[in-house]
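quick q for whoever's on today - can somebody do inverse folding on this one?? i tried earlier but teh output was garbage lol. tokens:
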């Protein structure tokens, strides 16, 4: 890879320049015409002209190359790691908007490189969809792969968990000996990937302040990945994440390189204490929820493996604000909106438990779609613990292409029909929900990917938020 610049002939160089210039123009045009943020179109155009564009740009940089993947937490973990790197004076190029298929990953190279394919950066940070990791890793040749977790997610797109795990295992096995795998040590399946990596570091939780004794009913990986016997848990933190052990074959959680030893959950943020190779770190994380504690541990583990300085970590973590649609607070006139992207049982449940920390009733706009990018299999909604929030819902609006099914699920959770209004159109649904929200109160929006994007676009046209690619 390092000799590509010297070996590239005039035709290959011209093709690269044309691909980059065309991709950049496509991005500017998309933004000018308000067709989106140009988060994937530049990469798509560039790859049509030069299928090797990503390989060529990557081959011309000495920046550290990191892939972050997994079912949940990719976008936020990337933002955390980028903030830590920036606090250490490092230049970061990343796909901040979460466009994580191959064209979105290529857009990072298109946007960050000049027309000769040269990129000034110390860290290239790629959020990559689980199903895209193998293809992306082959082109990027990363110095690090970070796996946040594995949960059941869009079975019609990914297949069952073992299919996704198999692809990730192969990608980690193919890493060069100098590369590092950063793995969630509390996830039995993810932790097992350490056997395929020459260099690895595990992160997780080791605290009595949070957690339960047994996995929740919707947990995905409750059997041993080696012998399929039921796992025992000393502590469960989220779903199947915890201190696990197989009583049959002895497979158990290994020592954690980065361990969360203290957690103070709050409505607007979280106090975190970690034991790390740096020593003990304490900081106030500017994001709520136990899931973000995991994201923080992952980012700190990656920072340690990259050799980033620890001094800037507390300030970087405390300054973080929610990413687009991740419990994102939005002022809507004299009302507040909390926009939450929920795509599978675990993300929905962790979001519900976070908002349940807030006192008072919960006015809900629930919007779900079954497009290809959302996943056409919608049965997972029945594994969400809506029963926990149902008694606090004075009324709600169900919207999106699956509005009727959303309404039915909430009805069976205990929300009576006379408290549910079904409005498939997102703009009128938003208007109706806000009209019923008292001034000064909060409307909680729980939405899958497409409705989240469309609702935020509506809010953008109303001047409530900036375009997501500017956040």
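ok took a stab at it. sequence:
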């Amino acid at each position: 890879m390092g000799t590509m610049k010297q070996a590239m002939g005039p035709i290959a160089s011209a093709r690269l320049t044309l691909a980059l210039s065309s991709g950049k123009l496509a991005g500017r045009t998309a933004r000018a015409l308000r067709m989106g943020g140009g988060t994937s179109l530049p990469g798509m155009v560039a790859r049509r002209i030069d299928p090797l564009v990503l390989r060529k740009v990557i081959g011309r940089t000495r920046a550290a190359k990191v892939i972050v993947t997994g079912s949940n937490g990719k976008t936020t973990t990337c933002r955390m790691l980028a903030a830590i790197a920036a606090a250490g004076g490092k230049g970061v190029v990343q796909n901040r908007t979460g466009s994580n298929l191959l064209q979105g990953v290529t857009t990072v190279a298109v946007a960050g490189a000049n027309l000769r394919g040269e990129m000034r950066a110390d860290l290239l940070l790629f959020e990559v969809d689980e199903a895209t990791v193998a293809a992306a890793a082959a082109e990027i040749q990363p110095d690090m792969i970070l796996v946040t977790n594995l949960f059941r997610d869009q079975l019609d797109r990914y297949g069952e968990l073992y299919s996704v795990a198999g692809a990730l295992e192969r990608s980690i096995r193919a890493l060069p000996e100098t590369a590092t795998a950063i793995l969630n040590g509390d996830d039995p399946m993810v932790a097992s990937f350490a056997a395929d990596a020459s260099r690895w570091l595990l992160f997780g939780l080791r605290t009595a302040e949070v957690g339960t004794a047994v996995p929740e009913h919707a947990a995905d990986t409750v059997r041993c990945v080696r012998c399929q016997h039921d796992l025992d848990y000393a502590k469960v933190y989220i779903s199947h994440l915890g201190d696990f052990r197989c009583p049959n074959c002895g497979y158990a959680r290994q020592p954690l390189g980065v361990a969360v030893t203290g957690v103070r959950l709050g409505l607007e943020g979280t106090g975190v204490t970690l034991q790390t190779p740096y020593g003990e770190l304490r900081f106030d994380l500017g994001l709520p929820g136990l899931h973000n504690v995991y994201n923080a541990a992952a980012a700190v583990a990656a920072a340690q493996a990259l050799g980033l300085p620890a001094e800037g970590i507390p300030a970087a973590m405390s300054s973080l604000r929610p990413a687009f649609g991740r419990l994102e607070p939005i002022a809507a006139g004299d009302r507040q909106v909390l926009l939450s992207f929920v795509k599978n049982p675990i993300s929905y449940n962790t979001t519900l438990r976070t908002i349940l920390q807030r006192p008072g009733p919960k006015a809900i706009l629930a919007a779900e779609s079954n497009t290809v990018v959302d996943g056409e299999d919608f049965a997972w909604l029945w594994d969400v613990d809506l029963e926990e929030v149902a008694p606090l819902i004075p009324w709600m609006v169900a919207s999106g292409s699956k509005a009727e099914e959303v309404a039915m699920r909430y009805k069976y959770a205990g929300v009576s029909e006379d408290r549910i209004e079904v409005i498939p159109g997102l703009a009128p649904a938003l208007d109706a929900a806000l009209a019923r929200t008292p001034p000064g109160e909060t409307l909680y929006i729980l939405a899958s990917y497409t409705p989240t994007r469309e609702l935020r676009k509506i809010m953008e046209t109303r001047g409530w938020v900036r375009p997501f690619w500017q956040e």
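fwiw Residues 10-32 form the longest helix (23 residues). also The chain has two domains: 59-318, 328-470. so keep that in mind when u check it
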